[in-house]
Amino acid sequence: MQETRPFVSWDMMNDFMIDAFKGYGVPEQDAAICADVLLESDRRGIESHGCNRFKPIYIDRIKKGTLLPVTELEIVKETPTTVVMDAHDGMGMVASYRMMEMLIAKAKQYGMAGGAIRNSTHYGIAGYWTSMASKEGMIGLTGTNARPSIAPTFGVENMLGTNPLTFSLPTDEEFPFCLDCATSIVQRGRIEYYAREGRPTPAGTVVSEQGEALTDSAQILKDLVAGTAALTPLGGIGEELGGYKGYGYATVVEILSAALSGGEFMKALSGVSPEGKPQMYHLGHFFFVVDPDAFMGQEEFRKIAGDICRALRSSKKAPGQSRIYTAGEKEYDVWMFRKDKGVPVGEGVQKDLVAIRDELGLDYHFPFED
């Protein structure tokens, strides 16, 4: 694994992000949660949701007023096995952390639990929340709606969010089976990453109103906001390669995210008012936790899950291929490579870190400045 970008230590990046969040009004305990969620993305190599998003998604929105730094959580409804929460436009990562704490405790007592959050904001990498469950030996499931980006099959209008449907399953290996992916071919965060790195978006992943493939990453981001471009669902355009499957799963996530919490959906989540002004996003998330001890036990679940993953990885490989992976394995490999090195930061992120530091007057000197 080669890496040409400079590294910033995990401790320095964590401390810096906590201090920066605090500088923009986020309470220290909440800032620590948010920093850890972002860094977990970089630990796994999912850079579209890590430090790349620190400034443009979180800091800039706090400054713009579309994300409140202080999260006032309200329990709308609670039963022994369920929770409905209103985040009141605060930090989605903070609301989700509190939700998962509650659901894990309920699942340990009752075998399974589910929750939903409304009026929330971007909750970071979805796999963070399911991994909270798998670290406790439990099954985690989550999904979230998002700004309209995906066009329905046979359509070109962005109607659905990239709507990840994410699972973490404990195994007897060093890492869980963790499937964390959008229901589009690429997600908006990946295009933001391409734009920051000056790279084109792969052809066929975004369609214009005229049904043409778009590749200019910076322009795509503008077109998505303007509603003149849309992402394609998993499977691509039309039905021939199964695009209706990605469209269907995206719709499932949209319904569960909004309907379980009594929240808003699709066009109401654009972050832009009918007058074209910035407004709150009002996202919805859902979460489920299942304790295998309520079935045949954690030990048996872990072993069978591990046996399945090992059998898949040891199956016959295609010509020219040296390795078969199971979900979560590549992310574990990235962590093994990066854990003693730190966070690799490209030029775009470097500029963001320096700009935030200078604006807040924080006392940090980054290794890439030497």
Overall pLDDT level: 95
Order of strands, main sheet, comes to 2-3-4-10-5-6-7
Secondary structure tally: strands: 11
Helix percentage: 25-40%
Strand content: 5-15%
Number of helices: 11
Bulk shape: globular
Taking pLDDT < 50 over at least 5 consecutive residues as the criterion, the unreliable ranges are none
Secondary-structure element order, N to C: EHHHEEHEHEEEHEHEHEHHEH
- What gyration radius follows from the Cα positions, in whole Å? 20 Å
How is the main sheet built? Answer: 7 strands, mixed
Pairing-aware structural class of the strands and helices? alpha+beta
The end-to-end span amounts to 24 Å
Features:
370 residues; alpha+beta; 7-stranded mixed beta sheet; two-stranded antiparallel sheet; 11 helices; 11 strands
Give an overview of the whole structure.
This protein is globular. It is 39% helix and 14% strand. Strand 2 (74-78) and strand 3 (82-86) form a beta hairpin. The chain is α+β, with helices and mostly antiparallel strands. The chain has helices at 10-23, 28-43, 54-64, 92-110, 126-134, 188-197, 217-226, 243-259, 298-313, 329-338, 347-360; strands at 7-8, 74-78, 82-86, 112-120, 139-144, 165-169, 177-179, 206-208, 229-231, 283-290, 343-344. The protein starts with 6 loop residues before the first strand and ends in a 10-residue tail after the last helix. The model has no long low-confidence stretch (mean pLDDT 95). Strands 2-3-4-10-5-6-7 form a 7-stranded mixed β-sheet, with helices on both faces. The chain has a two-stranded antiparallel sheet with strand order 1-11. Strands 8-9 form a two-stranded antiparallel ribbon.
